[in-house]
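Troubleshooting log. The previous structure file for this entry was overwritten by mistake, so regenerating from the original sequence record. Sequence copied from the archived sheet and checked twice against the printout by T.R.
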Amino acid sequence: QVQLVESGGGLAQPGGSLRLSCAASGFTFRNYHMSWFRQAPGKEREFVAQIGWSAKDATYADSVKGRFTISRDDTKNTLYLQMNSLKPEDTALYYCGKGGSTNWRDYISWGQGTQVTVSS
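Regenerated output below.
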């Protein structure tokens, strides 16, 4: 079955950086678009970024454009999110998703998420 395991979260200062990873298994990773979502306490899960096959056609939410970079390594079945210039409003639980939709309701499988906290 599909397994998604996120890691790399932690505490960062405003302006700092973190790199998230998502190890995927149970499906042919290279054949799927992959996405990152996040959910802050009391808020709905929101789209962050998605990447197409062979690392083409990445798209980003306006709130992270220019600061975050999504990438993938199909040889390792791993998705990444490089987060730079972090802001307190980036604090959330970050999830990866199998697919390219920007609507979290279109996804069936989620990992446990990785917590990102941006605070001084």
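Residues 33 and 99 are 5 Å apart (CA to CA). Archived copy saved in two places this time.
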